[in-house]
Amino acid sequence: MKIKILDARSRELAVLEFSSAPTLDQIKKQYQEKKRVDTTRQAFYAVENGKRGKVIPAGKEPIADLRDGSELMFKDLGPQVAWRTVFLTEYFGPIFAFPLAYYLSPYIHGEQVQLNQTQIIATILFIVHFVKRELETIFVHVFGNDTMPLFNLFKNSIYYWGYAFLVAYFTIHPKYQSPAEWQVYLGAAGTVLSMLGNFYCHIILKNLRQPGSKERKIPRGFLFEYVTCPNYTFEIMEWFFFSFMIQSIPCLLYTLSGAGQMLPWAIKKHVGLKKLFDGKDGRELYPKNRKVLVPFIF
Asked: Entry's Gene3D superfamilies (predicted)?
């Protein structure tokens, strides 16, 4: 079986030969041998009416639609980096944002900040949040995609590091005024409970897949009975509580920015799971009453 590989202008790049219908991994491996393009940079698409069609999904199964003489369109994704590396890097900087804001305060503000109770609690919770993220990245998260573009490493790091140091600057500040005590305690309690809820959701998601398996299952239990992405729900709640606790506009902006990113991700996942688990051909039916982010509402 011969498979023609084309570029975006339908020019032939290579002809790959297989004894039977190949998997995407086999196509990538042979293309790497012929063209010296690392497999992590490769993406292949179906050719529809001479144009690039749907992407060929990853998988260990042979690509059923391929025939002798079939054509695939190739795209070079550019330099790639592991998802885990990106996550570890983007969460690393924020761990030091509040301590640096404190120790550098004589150089930034001309005086040493005398931390009050709210600033101490905020510092501890902020550090714990990002240490938790680092540990989850190493021990909990299962990444569906092996790599992402190298550019994302810099883009994501600028986003997280920038917001972290912005929030720290205005919180660890000589003129910072603490909200009422009840507000601080309520915000701190909400932050901790939301953080724990988020962690528990991640554990449930981790236990859905066996090591090395890409089988999709319907998450069940806890808040998953009511929404598709409770991990996002708790993440957003955590940052709203933290913003409430320290009464910070920069932190509220970070919260709204994060919620704005998580919303389309949650909708996409919700739609995808409903499409996958349609109740046909022996597949499970995705719970119809399950919402996206907010139980019973949205």
From this structure: 1.20.120.1630
* Ramachandran sector of residue 295 (left: φ over 0; alpha: ψ -120 to 50; beta: rest): beta
For 206-211, the CB contacts below 8 A with 24+ separation are 206/140, 206/141, 206/142, 209/142
The C-alpha R_g of the chain, in whole angstroms, comes to 24
Q: How many CB atoms lie within 10 A of CB 107?
A: 7
Helical (H) or strand (E) element with 13: strand 12-17
Ranges of each domain in the chain: 2-78, 81-276
Q: Is the pTM of this model over 0.85?
A: yes
Phi, psi torsion values for 147, nearest 5 degrees: -140, 165
Helix (H) or strand (E) run with residue 46 in it: strand 42-48
The amino acid that residue 243 corresponds to is S
Helices (H), 36-149: 83-95, 97-103, 105-108, 117-139
pLDDT tens-digit map of 75-114 = 999 999 999 999 999 999 999 999 999 999 999 999 999 9
- CA 241/CA 188 separation, integer angstroms: 7
Count of Cβ atoms closer than 10 Å to residue 103 Cβ: 14
CATH of domain 2-78: 3.10.20.90
Rounded CA gap, 61 and 56, in Å?
12
For residue 32, give every residue at least 6 positions away whose Cβ sits within 8 Å of its Cβ, in sequence order, or none. Answer: 38, 39, 42
**120 SS3 class:** helix
DSSP 225: G
Tokens 């550098």, residue located: 104
DSSP output for 74-105? EEE--SEEEHHHHHHHHHHHHHTHHHHHHHTH
Q: Is 125 helix (H, G, I), strand (E, B) or coil?
A: helix
Which amino acid would we find at residue 57?
Answer: P
pLDDT tens sequence across 164-174: 999 999 999 99
